[in-house]
Amino acid sequence: MSTSKPPSTDTPSIPPSSFPITPYTPSTTNTPFPYHPNDFIRADESSDTDFYSTPRFVTHIDDHAISLLKKYYSENLPKKGRVLDLCSSWVSHFPPELEEAALSGKKKKKTEQTAPLAQDGSQAPEDENLEITGLGMNAPELAANPILSATILQDLNADPAIPASVAPLRATVCVVSIDYLTKPLSVLSSLRDRTVEGGSVHLVISNRCFPTKAVGRWLRIGEGERLKMVGDYLWWSGWREVEIVEVCDGRMKEGEGGGGGGLARLMGMFGGVDPLWVVRAVRVAQDGDTVEGKSEL
Question: What CA–CA distance (Å, rounded) separates 231 from 217?
Answer without folding.
Answer: 15
